[in-house]
Amino acid sequence: MDPQLTEVSQMFERFKAAFIRKDFDSCANLLSQLKVLLTKFRSLPPLFENTPNAVNELLLAREIYEHAVVLSVKIEDQDAFERDFFQLKPYYTDAGSRLPPSQQEYLILGLNLLRLLVQNRIAEFHTELELLSATALENPCIKHAVELEQSFMEGAYNRVLSARQNAPHETYVYFMDLLAKTVRDEIAGCSEKAYDYLSINDARQMLLFSSDQELLEYIKEEHPDWEVKNGSVYFQKAKDSAPCKEIPSLQLINQTLSYARELERIV
Amino acid sequence: MTQDVEMKEQPAPSNSVPSSSPSTLHHLKEIASLIETGAYDREARRILRAIRLTMALRRKLKASVLSVFLSFALTPGSEAFTRLSSYLPKEDENEMEVDTATSTAQPPAKHSLPELEIYCYLLVLIFLIDQKKYDEAKACSSASISRLKNLNRRTLDVLAARLYFYYSLCYELTGTLSEIRSNLLALHRIATLRHDELGQETLLNLLLRNYLHYNLYDQAEKLRSKAPRFEAHSNQQFCRYLFYLGKIRTIQLEYTDAKECLLQAARKAPVAALGFRVQCNKWAIIVRLLLGEIPERTVFMQKGMEKALRPYFELTNAVRIGDLELFRSVAEKFSTTFSSDRTHNLIVRLRHNVIRTGLRNISISYSRIALADVGKKLRLDSVADAESIVAKAIRDGAIDATLDHSNGCMLSKETGDIYSTTEPQTAFNSRIAFCLNMHNEAVRALRFPPNSHKEKESAEKRRERQQQEQELAKHIAEEDDDEF
């Protein structure tokens, strides 16, 4: 066996041991060393040279990056997630035909979809979705993310929240918690427009707070324009600032002038 | 397949060759002389016409005619000649004799222009594709592309663009499109360096097609946004570009842009390109549905498209009524069509629009309705779902209403008079802008034959003018020399 490959796999074993111990600091440390070592393999993307050990090296590298993605979720670092995911992606797309399929693949792709949803990058979410085959869409991990997006777009927020209980994998919980925060902001935004007022009790339930105190603090911080009186929350103030009707004179002048200019050109 | 073709060709020599072959050959020779004059005069327009004439001959091409034409156009024994001849299937003996007899009677071609050589490549390639000999076509196209890379003549651009197109087509037909991606990128780079705008246009479209074939929307958009843009040279290429752009925009949820692109592509496409227009219409229908518009019935009744658009018609109907159950059954019934059209994911997105339309209908008909009833009408699972969905619809401006949580009902507001808003004005403005734009484009598309306004000048005056021009040219040349 190639000495370089042995070195990397030994270090990866140490990384895995630390990963199981949940010693994430030493994990991160080992990971950065591993990444440096991986750059020495010429069979890996972007070079993709067909060296004799290519398949073994690709497999090892893929596993390392898969662990890196999961690790980034554990240490709750979204930027690291994005970086590691993009490094991992070529192993699924471009090297996919040469390697046996990974069991982690759909789990990680689902995680990525969820991340895009949490960060409200819906366009990228759909771009990623187009890359998945029909069988991939049937996978519970992917399906979970797709259904979440649908409920989210429809506005069926309690379906989004109840999905937390049947998350397909423990790593999903982190993003689901983040999603809950996004959902709360969405609900607040919708309520503001849809209701004239809500009793404090209803508002607390709707915005998923466990105590009135938390609700009042949230209102103070995020929506200072809401008014709390007589045991109800009034959204009226926000609505008063409806745009008053005004003749759009500048726009009208511009349009008329452009018609005149164009007509001049024709006649 | 090849056998089938040969079977058909066997009985042909006895009666059809003497009648059709000379005329086809005659046409081909005319085209060749057209290309020659085009090459000498540096007029790409003539070569374009040559290609158009070739397309008319396409169905009549035969291996025998081609081999005669090759020996006419190319120097026998040259590299291109031997290579191209090897792609043509061998005919039976006596026919070959007839051909060689006619070809030896021709004066041997004294020169071989690169334009003519490339044209021969193109001709053989088209023939091979029509005969469904895709492996030979692949080999032939790759050979032509590597030859093209070494030639740098502006008169070749038109022919080269065509070759690129068929090159990609061969690989697409054999399902190996991903192999040529880096090659196409290299060609695009070369075309950019040579200021070959038509080539750039064609290659950009081929690359977009290549990416979209594998659903690589991200890469396609990145390339598209960074590639240089200029006034379109070819209407067909522009249509394709619009279609691909429309697809990308749809996936990225920019529906307004997408709709504009797709509708324009469908309108600009030539009448003969039925398949292309059907595709454009399919996507345009979905995008309009996603925008909350309902396409008119006439869209589905266009000539030759009724059958292909049928699934989309039923889908539109389901969205128009706002019935989730009907929508689901239509989506299931035509799921194979939708997945082969690769619109399945878009249709999943539509569910949300079905609910919105249903909700809008309810809000128009009722001034006050219990949320439980809303849920029942829209076939939603729970009242809580209904409430949050209605709340979101209100926030997004889909309906104008308020919710009363304590009584659990929805109160619709009076719909205002639309003519008191600026809505009619903007609609009117967009129509005027469309008409004016159409006029301007029509003016820009007008072509004037060169020097037509000077026709009336007498022969004497012309001689005088030419002399002046020559003197001027000499002056300029001298000045140029001075500068160095």
TrEMBL record, chain A:
Transmembrane segments: none annotated. The keyword ATP-binding does not apply. One of its GO terms (biological process) is proteasome-mediated ubiquitin-dependent protein catabolic process. It comes from the Eukaryota. Residues 79-251 form the PCI domain. GO terms for cellular component: cytosol; nucleus; proteasome regulatory particle, lid subcomplex. Gene3D superfamilies: 1.25.40.990. Keywords: Proteasome. Belongs to the proteasome subunit S14 family. This is PCI domain-containing protein. It comes from Gossypium barbadense.
TrEMBL record, chain B:
InterPro entries: CSN3 (IPR050756), PCI_dom (IPR000717), PSMD3_C (IPR013586), TPR_PSMD3_N (IPR057985), WH_DNA-bd_sf (IPR036390). It comes from the Eukaryota. The keyword Protease does not apply. The keyword Coiled coil does not apply. One of its GO terms (molecular function) is enzyme regulator activity. Pfam families: PCI, Rpn3_C, TPR_PSMD3_N. Residues 1-23, 449-484 are annotated as: Disordered. Residues 452-477 have a biased composition (Basic and acidic residues). SUPFAM superfamilies: Winged helix' DNA-binding domain. Residues 11-23 have a biased composition (Low complexity). Keywords: Proteasome. GO terms for biological process: regulation of protein catabolic process; ubiquitin-dependent protein catabolic process. GO terms for cellular component: proteasome regulatory particle, lid subcomplex. Acts as a regulatory subunit of the 26 proteasome which is involved in the ATP-dependent degradation of ubiquitinated proteins. Component of the 19S regulatory particle (RP/PA700) lid subcomplex of the 26S proteasome. The 26S proteasome is composed of a core protease (CP), known as the 20S proteasome, capped at one or both ends by the 19S regulatory particle (RP/PA700). The RP/PA700 complex is composed of at least 17 different subunits in two subcomplexes, the base and the lid, which form the portions proximal and distal to the 20S proteolytic core, respectively. Interacts with UCH1 and UCH2. Belongs to the proteasome subunit S3 family. This is Putative 26S proteasome non-ATPase regulatory subunit 3.
